[in-house]
Amino acid sequence: MQLLKYEVISHWIAVSFYVVSTVLFVYCVAFQKEKSLNVGLWFALIGLIPHSITLAVRWYAAGHGPYLQTPETLSSIVWITLVMFLIIGYKVPKLRVTGSVVLPFSLLMMAIGLFSNPGIRRLPATFRGVWLIIHIGFTKIAAGSILIGLGMSVFYLLKERNGGDVFYDRLPSLEILDNYGYRFAGLGFVFWTIAVAAGAIWANQGWGRYWAWDPIETWSLITWLLLGFYLHLRRFYGWWGNRAAWLMIVCFIFSAVTLFVIPFVMTTIHSEYHM
Amino acid sequence: MGRKGPRFFAAWQAESPRVYFLVDLLQLNHIYTSIWFLILIAVVALSLSYSIYYQTKGLIEFKTGAPGSFESSFSISVSKTAPGFAAKIRQAFQGAGYRPCLPGGGEDLIFEKNRWARWGSVIFHLGLFCIIIAAIYGLAFQKRGYVHLARGDTFSGRDQDLIARDCGVLAAVFDLGFRVRLNDFAPAYWETDQIKELSSGLTLFDKDREMKYVLSMGKPVRFKGIDIYQSFDYGYVLTFVLESKGAEPVVSHFFLDAPGRKDKPFTGGFVGESATDYTLDMKFYPNLIEPSFYVTLPGVDLIVKKNGKVEFDGRVLFSQQARVANGDTFTFVGINYWSALSFVKNYGIPFVYLGLLLSVTGAFLIYVFPYKRVYLKIREDSDSFQIAMGGRANRYQAIFSEELKEIGARLKKMLKV
Q: Closest partner residue to A183 among B342, B356, B396, by Cβ?
């Protein structure tokens, strides 16, 4: 119990840093103050330290990874997304502004997690094995990729609408934003494919069948097909720009429904890990 | 076996025979092993095979030739006295991971990156094709069966003794070819009442051989090509003996399902044909003193009905009797565990794994290693060489253009232009 107190404290410290980071990113976009971008980035980076402590303490106390209860699931997805975003922000400075989409969504997920049941849940009997770890890990990475792709698409639409504005003119060109949105959609597709494949293998080990059209399995297939549809439209039908950006937003909505809505509204095999 | 067991469909058929006839005719009661679903999957396979053929043909016929003209992203002028500029060009591109495509000479140089990754799409679709073929084969021939076994009981291994089965379109009956006895069953729980582990001790009888295995969640047993899985379904079997005047005692076993929490009772009823005119509803408490999953002081809240009329409603402790109206008695004589086992005979599994590996590899190649080509046209003037550079990527053209500019800047620096 003492350990979990430290978890709560470090969790709130992380949230505080993310709140400040979010405010700075939004301030940057709203008032076109680019300098606040780097400060926001630093706050997000520093916030990762107590966030990492939170996840580590929780992992130790629960005896399993952060993938059973809603708070820890959301928290770990946010952690992976922010790590990916910070790496991209470091490698491609022009894309840092997409944090004004990534950070608010991350903060929203953390907030939802904070107000959910924080109790520790013991590992169900079938939640073992390396394929489960691969399945969960790549699902989170795929979610992070799609979220960052969403950021690119949103900024494409904003820049297209606000052409001529000094701030938006300093952003990467529309073509670059479009290409990075495409790239992250592609990466999201790759990681989602691995997640679905690993999930099928784990399901066979646990329940004796690779695919049973469980609601979450079906929805993850729908999301995968939609991402594939997006990528085919881009490759073979010249879809890019405005249309592609809107379709990327639809892909994100479907992925969010798959991960965060279906387990709560329908009885699925994954409901075991959502309380 | 899916959410709807044989009892559900039997009840539906009794209630609405015409509707059920239509459902059965269209195979909607077992969609995923129906003929039309198999045909649908076959159509997807045909579509994939055409796509693979079309893409492979295009790749084989592909020739990396320079286009007649291309949009130049930059051009530089190099003095004829500048030593070894061709080698420096090669160095600049090879430093960025490009490989020369033509052996040089002539007017044009072509550099490529990730040439092999062009096959990514073919590999990906081939992987999907393998999975679909394995699915077709599996859907046509797979066999799945399900039994409830009380501890100490033996399953004959015959198709007719399965509680539920799901066989492929072209599969016949599902006879295991060996018998299975449940020697022991041990559920374990976390302090939060969740299942920690379910494990069954089995003996498999095959001709003259007897082999013992321990089966647990996530660790199936494989024997003679059949996988045996520990199911989530389990509970207690309660045995009652009905004694009536002038009649032989009738022994009945009641399979009760485990609850999700230890303060809830085990509930359920009879599996199979009822041996008496009575129906019994029961809620079993393994320990009447405090909530527990384990038997300590067992008792059952029992309702006995005959022809819809309640004959008994009360609590019966172990070894006690429940008396009903006409002097019949039900004696609570036995408590045992039962466990459900699933038997699966799958086909085409190696193809599934091959398909997964190929599709993941292909997707990776497509979106992480896009194919890129750079063309350089070199024109000779009186005292200099004019180098024009342009390029094409099969994806992310704008990002590639930025990369080309960086290479160009590096090249200019190397050539000291």
A: B396
Contacts with A249 (C-beta within 8 Å, 6 or more apart), sequence order:
A150, A153, A154
A242-256 helix and A174-207 helix, angle to the nearest 10 degrees: 30
Q: Does B270 have pLDDT greater than 80?
A: no
Give how far the C-alpha of residue A249 lies from the chain's centroid of Cα atoms, to the nearest Å: 13
CA distance B393 to B403: 11
**The residue to which tokens 């159509």 are assigned:** B43
Pick from A134, A26, A13, A139: which is nearest to A73 by CA?
A139
With CB atoms and an 8 Å threshold, state whether B360 touches A212.
no
Write the pLDDT tens digit of every residue in B16-46: 888 888 888 888 777 777 888 888 888 999 9
| For residue A274, pLDDT beyond 60 | no
Which tokens is A212 given?
């049973």
DSSP state of B185: E
Under 8 Å between Cβ of A152 and A209: no
Q: How many residues does chain A have?
A: 275
Q: Which residue has the tokens 């030739």?
A: B65
Question: Cβ(B229)–Cβ(A207) under 8 Å?
Answer: yes
The reply to whether ipTM tops 0.90 is no
B342 in reach of chain A (CB within 8 A)? yes
Beta-sheet pairing, B143-150 with B74-79:
unpaired
Largest CA distance in chain B: 125
Q: Identify whether the C-beta of residue B195 lies closer than 8 Å to the C-beta of residue B259.
A: no
Q: What integer is the mean pLDDT of A180-206?
A: 91
Dump strand ranges (E) for B217-277: 221-223, 226-243, 250-257, 266-270
A118: tokens are: 């924080």
pLDDT tens-place string over residues B252-262: 889 999 998 89
For chain B, the residue count is 417
Matching residue, tokens 């495509």: B101
Measured in angstroms, the CA of A16 and the nearest CA of chain B are apart by: 32
Taking contacts as CB-CB distances below 8 angstroms, the residues of chain A near B41 are none
**CB-based contact (8 Å) between B402 and chain A?**
yes
- Report yes or no: A206 at the B interface, CB cutoff 8 Å: yes
Query: What is the token pair recorded at A199?
Result: 């999930």
pLDDT tens digits, residue range A37-62?
889 999 999 999 999 999 999 888 88
Q: Which residue has the tokens 């597709």?
A: A189
Distance CA B153, CA B133 (A): 39
Tens of pLDDT, residues B194-241? 888 999 999 999 988 999 999 998 889 999 999 999 988 899 999 999
Cβ–Cβ gap B398/A122 under 8 Å: no
Contact A96, A34 (CB under 8 A): no
